[in-house]
UniProtKB/TrEMBL annotation:
Official protein name in the record: Uroporphyrinogen decarboxylase
Record keywords, A-Z: Membrane, Transmembrane, Transmembrane helix
Transmembrane segments: 6-24, 31-50
Amino acid sequence: MTWEYLGYLASVFLVVSLMMTNVTKLRWFNLAGCICFTIYGAMISAWPVVLTNGLLALVNIYHLIKLLKGKD
């Protein structure tokens, strides 16, 4: 597998996330895209990509925790 395909997969996750009307689903798809982009960036030594998407993944996790706690 070339790492380029992981980058395409990450892009698909991010585009799909932005088509969601449900915020929880949006966060899950966006998190998957951020994780894929973080791995992709690390594999091609693109450290700004790793940093940005790693931080965005943490933001998504934070908001997912808030959303899931609010449902109790």
